[in-house]
Amino acid sequence: MRVSVIGCGHLGIPHAAAMAEIGHEVIGVDLDQAKIDHLNAGECPIYEDGLPELLSTHTSTGRLRFTTSLAEAAEFADIHFLAVGTPIDADGRSYDTGQVFGAARALAPHLTRPTVVIGKSTVTVGTSRDLGALLARLSPAGEDVEVVWNPEFLREGHAIDDTLRPDRIVVGVPSARAEDAVREVYAPLLANGIPLFVTDPATAELIKGAANAYLGMKISFINGVADMCTAAGADVQQLTEAIGLDPRIGRGGLNAGPGYGGGCLPKDVRAFTASARTLGATEAATMLRAAEEVNESRPTAALRLIEQTLGRPVDGLRITVWGASFKAGTDDVRESPALAIAALMHQRAATVTVHDPHAVPTALRRHPELDYCESLEDSVKAAELIVLATEWPHFREADPKALAPLVADQVLVDLRNLIDADAWRMAGWTVRQLGRPAQE
């Protein structure tokens, strides 16, 4: 099939590359001409594992190309994916769907034949209904333009794998014709046994919000329990392994750490909380808000653990933070817990240097007040404390013996429970891990 992907960001670029990978002819659309030029040259403006290779492969064959012209995309494609951003609104609680409706308004005059527009962006329930009415009113094809909602469930750092090998595909469809179009575009994936979950549009919109809200609550739950373990001298890792064996709970996502971040999870929990309140589900809203509050408290909780380990405030200290992206596998630093902790320590008059294998340039743009280092070894020189705040294997594999002569004090606070603490202690380091008893 010929498909377009409108919006070339963290969602749209991986989706466009994946659609080309499964055999479609794809045109990506974005307003940023410089970005389009880079993409057409096979140059990826974001880091996502496996994406540069797919982008280079399919732009070189011509199966994937990019443009700023919606007219060109409308003439070319039979299916249009909407993958524009839906940032949190000015109220801090709901989605700003301006880009979704703006893209639809700009596309509508060019839709002269029956087509299906498939929304990928995360939106408030009811958006697909309103978008369908808008397109029917403004498009020359009228009601022959239908809107399907097909929420993404991508984990940043795994976006390509999650697109090509998802655990399910959810679509909210208004008609049998629209469902047929979805089945055709995803036919190569469905042939591999991936389940297609067909619902009405409102249910599909709520499924995405509910999934991320539940994940946020699960993360906040175990982080709250980690605080209890710290106070009690218990071990959150052992606790997590034990309760994760219960199939009603499960181990996935049940990892104590400095909190959830990124461009999706925080805003999705906020917006789902707001939706619950709007729909009159006040008890659900209260529960969801509690999960948010736990997550919001993580930088302060991390600082408390750091200062307990040091036995003094951080002011005046030289501190290295390992990790800038909100998680491993991406250069996305939106709402990064690692950077929030680094910024908090900077505000407390510490000198903070940040190192990340891929996210230094994006972090520098958001937090220019911090110092940055491209090399792991250089990042720890003269440091009096290292804070490990992300899960890159790059840090798990660091050699404590080789690093020891470079630092001023061999002190490491591991907020991700990532390293083999015993190996580091044997090399002479003082190590403290989140939710675990203090050991020397």
Quick synopsis:
By secondary structure, this protein is α/β, with parallel strands linked by helices. It is built from 20 helices and 14 strands. It has helices spanning 12-21, 33-40, 51-61, 70-76, 98-107, 127-138, 159-164, 176-185, 187-190, 201-232, 236-244, 265-278, 282-296, 298-310, 337-347, 360-366, 376-379, 393-396, 400-403, 421-426; strands at residues 2-6, 25-29, 64-67, 79-82, 115-119, 145-149, 169-172, 196-199, 318-322, 351-355, 371-373, 385-388, 411-414, 430-433.
Describe the protein's architecture and organization.
There is one protein chain. This protein is α/β, with parallel strands linked by helices. The protein is built from 20 helices and 14 strands. The protein has a 6-stranded parallel β-sheet with strand order 3-2-1-4-5-6, with helices on both faces. β13, α20 and β14 form a beta-alpha-beta unit. α10 packs across α12. It is globular, with a radius of gyration of 23 Å. The mean pLDDT is 94.
